[in-house]
Amino acid sequence: MGFLDKFEKTLENKVTGLFSKTFKSGLEPLEIASAIKQEMDAKASILSRDRILVPNSYLIQLSPQDFERLNDLGEPLIEELSKLASEHASKQRFQFGDLLDVSLSQEPSLALGQLSVVSSSKKLEIVWVPVLEVAGVPHTLVSAKTTVGRDSTADIQIGDNGLSRKHFEILWDGSSAVLRDLGSTNGVKVQGRKIDQVVLPTGTAFSAGRTDFLFNVIARAK
């Protein structure tokens, strides 16, 4: 099953309650979700191997008839479309430069069943920020060197007796990161293997002591 098929199947399962109404003609919500996904894929800007930026604003233009009917579904429709668009972006490792915004409008030139997706991004200066998730809790790394351990002198202190006082550090040069073990007792494991030092691409999961970590580089408006 292709990704689009999976995406549409997921959407069908999730909107069963919200969109139980069957439309005999005209546009259906599933088609809007697929169109947003296609527009996002088409407008993705590959900045590097692991950094892909996509528009954050999606204006869905509908025929007057479709707009009147779908707009009646109200905020739940927008919330569900936004949620699914965000999930798609996460799966594809896309990043938004600003908050995701999905909206509907009517376009008189469109016939019943037709739609147009107009995507855009605010003209903001984007900075890439390193973030370390510690057991699901994000910590923005603000220095060129960040130490992690159980001691209060570590930049990020974790109450895990399996960690050394200063267990490892992450070095950030503004564009790339390196994970370095600081001679810890129990070591640092990336993909199940102990490492001394390794480059950290965004999306890298690793463990130390009894704690799981996830490193990401995310886009933020400056």
Automatic annotation (TrEMBL):
Against SMART domains, the record matches this protein to: FHA
Record Gene3D superfamilies? 2.60.200.20, FhaA, phosphopeptide-binding domain (DUF3662)
Alphabetized Pfam families for the sequence: FHA, FhaA_N
Give the SUPFAM superfamilies listed for this entry.
SMAD/FHA domain
**Which residues are in the FHA domain?**
146-195
The name this protein goes by in its record: Unannotated protein
